[in-house]
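Example record for the data management plan.
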Amino acid sequence: MRKIAALILALAVAACGQKGDLTPRVGGTLPAAPFGRSDKPTAEKLLDPPVQAIPERSVELRRRSEEREDDPFDLPPKE
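Corresponding structural encoding:
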């Protein structure tokens, strides 16, 4: 019985999420402008991740099989 109640409670909590635009609370404001900037960024601009947070992939995929270099950390298991 407790498992069912916990499951119903978990589903109710998971289903109560609000989907909509983020706005400051009534009477609240957005954070102050960053030091050195004269303009105050909007909420949408603050939610956009910077380029450093989403780097582009720079790894070249292998096109053919190649011999692996010797790995000094590939040790046999200890007995």
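Summary line stored alongside the record: The chain is about 25% helix and 0% strand.
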